[in-house]
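Protocol step 4 of 6: structure prediction from sequence.
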Amino acid sequence: MGPEDRKSGFPHARGSRHPLLLTHDVFFGELQSSRSLDGITLSHRIADSPPQEVEIHTHVEAHFVLVTSGRYVSSARATPNRGTTLVYNPPGTTHRDHFDQGKGSFFTISVSIERLAESTASELPTVAVHLSNESACGFARTLLMECARWNASSLLKAEALYSELLAAASHRSTPAHRSRPTWLRAAHELIQDCYAEDLRIRQIANSVGVHPTHLARVFRSFLGCTPGDLLRARRLEKAAELLLSTDISIAEIALESGYSDQAQFTKAFRQLYGTPPGSYRRLSVRHTAARRDVAF
């Protein structure tokens, strides 16, 4: 299903020489969850279009794309972060970004023209770019996690995280006087690589030679998220990849992703991805079957 099937009013017809215009929070993907702030929409989607069905399109408004599973093919400039794919597309971005084999999921932060105008001091990029800044990736990831556990205080938290994301994504995001500790990368990579283990803050801190309280504070300051948020996001991202790329049982995936039982895993997965693991896998299978009938 393309975006034109969900919302009407685009000044474009298929086959036109002009790119399809996508307005606020409109993407190629099946919507799973969405939260709205003032001029900002936070949404999580599962890719539902084979690559050949994603036509060239223009996004009227700015947005961030955080990939939560799958391999994202993007024309954005700069080198992606090693562990997290986060892209900023300014207003008017024209591209044909898509998922390899049409398999994947993504979290978007769509910003209205009016809201973006309030943030001109942030000096955001004027072309589509991969954001390799660990802080920017962390703030986007924390926004995703906050959407999954939405409560009465989440609106205020999300507004603050959005502001921090803008600052981290700007050209002036790395003040000269701030020096990142050499142990921080080791702590970050430990969580990324050992996500299936029963990690504790004290264990991570001991492995890099710092106090647990200092680790938590510095981690949040430089990486934009807590160690716990990174661990939960990493586990579920890997689980989503296994659901897309293998046929092993959901119980096995739960264990391989660091969860003690399937019920706990299913609850966590549904909170973040907006659908149970089984439904996520079936959606992927359905799209794979549909691709066999599409001629190149």
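Step 5 (inspection) to follow. Residues 3-172 form a domain with the Jelly Rolls fold (CATH 2.60.120).
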